[in-house]
Specification:
globular, about 290 residues, 3-stranded mixed sheet, about 20% helix, 11-stranded antiparallel sheet
């Protein structure tokens, strides 16, 4: 009964944001030339280390060498929204009940992290650029993640293919009927945490992977140089040669797009992934 109730809740939340993406609101509409370092209770932290363009503008912190996404520190369970109209390419669940020092090579001295959220979503926008989110605790697109045969294992890294969407009840009917497209302002999930040892554990990671055809000559050269740098690390070949070969672009650095604080009908503007709580309360969302 609890599983059914949660499924209905996720479907309703997905439907609410699909129906009321551009709702009337008393909140003042704002745009930004760059992704703000602090917005709506969130704070940008360590950048995407693998990106050919990243910056210390928002944080002096450094992540691990092959870090794909910029960390956005935010309380676990915070709603995360689609930043533009985009198509879901895949959803993965690598979450676990804990991450011990055996698998947690970057934090061996800190011991075991309890609760490791790692649902990953990959989208593509109208310009054929990919948009990556990971370290989500859930997503309405695959209600079966974390349930039944797809319950989280005890230890991170002990499963690989068992928890694919197709083994976990499939994708949500509403999104498959829409050819996997989501609208700007739709709920895509809730933020997670990577443990309990650090103040920076509750966060999501977020990045762009730019279609090389959309890059100018200078950017293509920078991307090629970064790829060569990435491949000098043994973990790159061992982990995934494909993702080491891509042109990652840290979101806090992008100057070619305009950000907005609440969703508008302007398809060229990108929505902040975390919205003011007053806005989603106005449109009827309750956690």
């Amino acid at each position: 009964m609890k599983k059914l109730s949660l499924y209905i809740f996720l479907v309703l939340m997905f439907s609410i944001f699909t129906s009321y993406s551009f709702a009337e609101t008393k909140i003042k509409y704002k745009t930004y030339q760059k992704l703000p370092c602090n917005f709506n209770g969130a704070k940008i932290d360590s950048p995407a280390a693998i990106a050919f363009k990243n910056s210390s503008r928002c944080s002096k912190s450094k992540g691990y060498p092959l870090k794909r996404g910029t960390s956005i520190l935010v309380k676990r369970g915070t709603p995360i929204f689609a930043i533009t109209d985009m198509k879901l390419i895949y959803a993965k669940d690598r979450s676990a009940k804990q991450r011990s020092k055996i698998y947690n090579k970057t934090q061996k001295k800190q011991g075991t992290d309890y609760i490791f959220d790692d649902i990953e979503l990959m989208f593509v926008d109208k310009n054929d650029n990919q948009i990556l989110f990971y370290h989500l605790m859930d997503t309405p697109f695959v209600p079966g993640f974390g349930k039944g045969n797809c319950e989280r294992p005890l230890e991170f890294g002990t499963e690989k293919f068992k928890r694919s969407p197709y083994n976990c009840g499939g994708y949500l009917k509403e999104i498959t009927n829409n050819n996997m497209w989501v609208k700007k302002g739709d709920l895509i999930g809730h933020s997670g945490t990577t443990g309990s040892n650090s103040k920076g554990d509750p966060h999501i990671s977020f990045s762009f992977i730019i279609n090389k055809e959309n890059l100018n000559k200078k950017e293509k050269k920078l991307c090629d140089l970064q790829v060569k740098k990435n491949f000098k690390q043994n973990e790159c070949i061992k982990w995934s040669p494909l993702f080491c070969r891509q042109c990652y672009y840290a979101p806090e650095v992008r100057k070619d797009i305009i950000w907005e604080n609440i969703p508008s009908d302007n398809s060229n503007y990108y929505l902040l992934p975390i919205i003011n709580k007053k806005y989603y309360k106005e449109i009827g969302y309750k956690k």
